[in-house]
Amino acid sequence: MATRNSARPSLWSVRGPMSQRTYWVFAAVGLLAPLIAWWAVASSGLVSKVFMPGPGQVLSRALVWFNRDNLAGDTQISVYRVTAGWALSAVFALPIGLMIGTFRPVQALLEPLTDFIRYMPAVAFIPLVMLWIGLDESSKIAIIFIGTFFQMILMVAEDVRRVPVAQVEAAQTMGANRRELMELVLLQSAKPALLDTMRITMGWAWTYLVVAELVAANSGLGYSILKAQRFLQTDKIFGGIIIIGLIGLITDQFFRLAHRKAFPWMVRKS
Prior knowledge:
By secondary structure, the protein is an all-alpha fold. 76% of the residues lie in helices and 0% in strands. The protein is built from 12 helices and no strands. It has helices at residues 2-7, 20-44, 55-68, 71-102, 104-118, 126-132, 137-161, 165-173, 178-207, 209-212, 221-230, 234-262. Helix 4 (71-102) packs parallel to helix 7 (137-161). It is flat and about 70 Å long. 26% of the residues are buried. The model has no long low-confidence stretch (mean pLDDT 88).
C-alpha cells in the first residue's frame, strides 16, 4: 500500500498531474468565488449600489443594452478592431522577431530600438495617430497595433533564441544552409512557443481596446464603458468589463485548443 502511494505524485506536488475533472472543479471554484464575494458585498449594504451594483443589477443592464442599445453591434465592432490590430502586429512582428532571434547583427540593430519604443505608452500616441491617420477605423486599429507590435517582436525573438543550439548544430552538421536552418529548424522548433506568444499578445490587444476607442469612436464596448462613466452607470461599466473578459476567456481557450491540436506531443498525460 505504501509503495503504491509513493509511486503516484500527490495533487500538490510540484508540477504534479491533475485529471481534467479535478482541473475543472478548481477552475469553477476560482471563477465562482469572486462572483459570490461580489454578490455578498453588494447585498450587504455597506457600499452604495451606485458604486457597487450587484450581479443581478448588472445582468439586467446588460439585457437592456442588448435589447435596446445594440450590444451585439458594439461587440462586433470591438472584436473587429482588436483582431485587425493584433493580426497586423503578427504579420510584421513574426518575420522581424525571427530575424532578430536568428542573426546577431539584426538583433544589435533592432532590439535596443524596439526595447526603447515598447516602454512608450500607447495612449501617448493618440494625438499623433489622429494627425497622421485621421479619425476613422484605421486610427483605432493603429492604437492596438502600437500597443502590441513592439512587445510581440521581442517575445518572438526570445522564442526563437530558446531553440536549443544542439538542434542548430546538428542541422549544420547535416549540411543545412541558412534558409533551411531558419525554416526547418528554428521556425519549426519555436512554433509551440510562438503560438503561446500569439495567445498572450491577443490578451494585451484587448487591454488597449478602451484606449483605442478614445479616438473619436461612436460605437464599441470601450466607447460604451466610457460613455457610461459620464452618466455614472456603474452597472453598465461592470457589464462591459465582464463582456470583454468573457470574450478574452473564449479566445484564450480557442488558442489553447489550437495548441493542443497542433502540438499533441506537448500535452502531458495526467
